[in-house]
Amino acid sequence: MTISLEHYLAVSATLFCLGLLGVLVRRNLLIIYMGLELMLNAANLALVAFSRFNNSPDGQIFVFFIITVAAAEVAVGLALIVALYRKRQTTHVEDLTSMKL
Amino acid sequence: MQEILFYFFAFLTLLFGFLVVANPFSRNPVTSAMFLVLTIVSLAGLFVLLHAFFLAAVQILVYAGAVMVLFLFVIMLLDLKAEERLRIKTIVALEGLVAAGALLAIFFWSLSTLQAPLDRGEPPSLEGGATNLGKLLFSQYVLPFEIVSVLLLVAMIGVVLLSKKELK
Amino acid sequence: MIALLWIILFLPLLVAGLITLVTRRDRNLSAGLSIAAVVVGFILSAIFVHFNGWENSGESSATWLAIGSFQVDFGLRFDPLSMAMMLVVTGVASLIHIYSWNYMLEDPGFSRYFACLSLFTFSMLGIVLAGNFIQLFIFWELVGVSSYLLIGFWFERPAAADAGKKAFLTNRLGDFGFLLGILTVWATLGSLNFSALQNAISSNPAAFGGTATLAGLLIFCGAMGKSAQFPLHVWLPDAMEGPTPVSALIHAATMVAAGVYMLCRVMFLLDVPGSQALEVIAWIGGFTALLSAVIAVQQDDIKRILAYSTLSQLGYMVMGVGLHGPAQSMFHLTTHAFFKALLFLGAGSVILALHHEQNIWKMGGLARRMRVTTWTFLAGTLALSGVWPLSGFYSKDSILALAMDRQNLALLGLGLFVAVLTTFYMFRLVFVVFFGADKSETAGHAHESPQGILWPLRILAALSIVGGVIGIEGLYEAQFGNGHVVAALTWERIWQQLWLPFQLAPVPAFCGLGAVLAGFVAAWSLYGNAASDPLPAKLGVVSTWMRNRFYFDELYEATVIRLHDFLAAVAGWIDRWIIGGAVMVTHGATELTGRALRLVQNGNLQTYAFLFALGVAVVLFLALK
Predict the structure, then answer these.
(1) pTM of the full predicted structure?
(2) Which of C606, C616, C624 is nearest residue B110 as measured by Cβ atoms?
(3) Which terminus of chain B, N or C, has fewer Cβ atoms within 10 Å?
(4) What pLDDT sits at residue A72?
(5) Nearest to C475 by CA among C493, C492, C462, C487
(6) pLDDT at C482 over 70
């Protein structure tokens, strides 16, 4: 059958939930961060799909910006992880409980 | 032809995405990073199928080429030993499945009970070439474009500051 | 003119405040201020009456409280009743204030005593001059407070402190009924001002309707408490723990009379046609008179005998009111004020001379050593017994004549019997205390009291002797009789008054005199030269009952107090476990919830992310539904 918008959206949704699963289940900080990247990419796919099937270039512009911002975010996030590792000597997320009330 | 390619790339994306998260081969983060690269490449394939050529190229260049390389640099920098094979706690797995499953269910449910059509009913005809995007980018979206450049500058400064050794 | 009344009322209050706050250290100044306030009050009262005349009535008031249609004024009312009472109160109080100076001279609480006395004077005058029920009630309570302060004056003695509490609480019980009565009157008639009420009743006697008896009896509850009628009579004998001048002023002459005064004041509410209240009142009065006279026959403390005598005479007055004779009751109240105050002050003189000994069987032979005290006391006794031509004869006879008039032979007989008993126990007291041999060492060393004590005795004796014929009852007739005019006092009138009872109602008059004779003879034969009490041997167990006041206190303790303690315990339990339980349950629930919720905050990043995702799912679901 013709590949329609719904197919692409289904793929995007599944990818997003896979990324969420990674964030919730894995305990290594870096892998959690990778899960986040997966979620971003899923959003990108959805946007491009919408843009294509609605004949509107705005979606692709949006994705362009998202990729840029994601790059900046990764840089900063990784710098934070490095600083954290230097301080705590661990990337195990269960050792980082200073948010406990 | 289109369909086969779509299914192929979709399957790859999901497979590699799954392998990033639930890696049975080794618990080394490097493996996960590699699989993430492969996911991004598959995704670029999907972009091509959607006629977003420029974005596909950008995806590979920037995301796979720069971002993931950065990731790998940091992983190597931290020199992590492989995690001990700790079992994932049942409650945690359950939590994850519940949340992700709930969201997934909602997504599919909303997709299936659509009332208004998602697209306009026209046959898709958008070509995402560099020219088209460039025209739009430098005319209508020039302000966000400039701001994003400032954003990149700020990010750079932030990263430099954060990485300094004496910042305690 | 009216301004005089305001000054008379508030001067003692001012002095009480001054003594408490300013002049406490200076004993003489405090006493002087207090005495001056009341003496000035008496003089101003006399001036006011002289210029106003006896027949004029009026009011002076200012609106104090106005809520919707309910209005209460604060003001003064003067009419023959209140003017006469005002003179009695200020006059007797002046004499007692002067007496107190000598009596309380060595007491460390000298200034406090005079402050309390002035407070009492203010409160009593407030009752006398009150123009509406609310004001009356306020001053009623104030008088109760002053009484409490003065009974428990020597508060280091547990007996005195307990007696003060007992007086206050018993009064409170009566006041509760009083308040209910006031509310009933207000609900039925819509006003609390005495003139307004009187007009309402006289223009429409049926306005009161069926609640007349109930309201009357409830109002009488207040008089029961204040004037110590049965069954609330138990506080008065215990009140003798206070200093003797206090007993004279408050518990003989004025405060206990306030109940009778109040009943006379609202007589128009009580004798509404169709109301049974007065019958009940008459019988309660008669019964109280009988009961206390019987108890008095076997008491050995000089003040207790006089206290029971007061109870008995108050019963007489209440009986008089019940027989539709407010003028006669007020007449007896006035003469009683004179001779009872005299008797108490005389007793005080004796107590002082014998260094605070109060048992009559330790006195004796004082006639030889304390002449003035003896003859004044004797005058008082004769007046109380009702010997012609002293004042008591006329006032008692007026009440007996009233009983005869109303065809109530039962009450007449009761009154005569009580007269016999009265003479009997009073002369028992006189013979044992003043005549016969010395019954103890201290009696042998007694000597006469100073002049500051003797002059009030003399003045009161003179009043007790002539009080019956100078036309006091005429004043009250002006209030209660219709259009009666107070005649001028001339020698002819006095001579006429002297023989009047024998002309108007000879039967009660002669029966009364016969009762006196009987009592005197009985007392003389038993106690003429007695060294100890011969009655217990003759009467046996009845005598024991009389000595123990017929066990009323014990009865109340076993029933009322126990019930009250039980109710208090139940209320305490409810408060602790049921109301407190509700609070505890809330507290527990909140704490448990808090502890449960706290488990969520474990600091784990992934828990937070999970909750976050779950929240998003829920919101999306709700938004897309």
Answers:
(1) 0.69
(2) C624
(3) N
(4) 95
(5) C487
(6) no
Report whether C275 contacts C208 (CB < 8 A): yes
Residue C385 identity (one-letter amino acid): S
Strands (E), C265-322: none
Residue of C607, C613, C624 with shortest CB distance to B103: C613
* Residue B94 placed within a domain: yes
Residue B92 within a domain: yes
| CATH 1.10.287.3510 correct for A5-92 | yes
* Mean model confidence pLDDT for chain C: 86
* Residue B122 forms contact with A (CB below 8 Å): yes
pLDDT, one tens digit per residue, over C433-459 is: 888 777 777 777 777 888 888 888 899
CB contact under 8 A, C602 and A96: no
Interface test with B, best of C608, C620, C622, C625 (most B CBs within 10 A): C620
Q: Which domain holds residue B82?
A: 2-106
How much of chain C is helix, strand and coil, in % rounded to 5? Answer: 75, 5, 20
Cα distance between residue C308 and residue C305, in whole Å: 5
Judged by CB atoms closer than 8 Å, whether chains meet at C606 and A99 is answered as no
Closest to B83 in 3D by CA, of C603, A79, A93, A96: A93
Q: Before B117, cis peptide (omega within 30)?
A: no
Taking contacts as CB-CB distances below 8 angstroms, the residues of chain A near C602 are: 97, 100
A69–chain B nearest CA distance, Å: 7
How large is the ipTM? 0.91
B161 located within any domain? no
Per-residue pLDDT tens over the stretch C366-413: 888 888 888 999 999 999 988 888 888 888 888 888 888 888 888 888
List of chain A residues whose C-beta atoms are within 8 Å of the C-beta of residue B111: 6, 9-10, 13
Q: Which residues pair with C59 in a beta bridge?
A: C77
Residue of B nearest to C614 (CA): B99
Q: What is the pLDDT of residue B27?
A: 75
Q: How far apart are CA C245 and CA C344, in angstroms?
A: 7
B50: nearest Cα among A66, A38, A3? A3
Do the Cβ atoms of C104 and C20 come closer than 8 Å? no
CATH number at residue B84: 1.20.120.1200
B34 part of a folded domain: yes
With CA atoms as reference, the chain B residue closest to A91 would be B80
Domain boundaries in chain A? 5-92
Half-sphere exposure at residue B146, Cβ-oriented, CA atoms within 13 angstroms: 5
CA distance C436 to C432: 7
Cβ atoms of B40 and A67 closer than 8 Å: no
Helical H segments across C467-579, by residue range: 472-480, 491-504, 506-527, 535-539, 541-547, 552-556, 562-573
Q: Is C106 exposed, middle or buried (0-12, 13-18, 19+ CB in 10 A)?
A: exposed
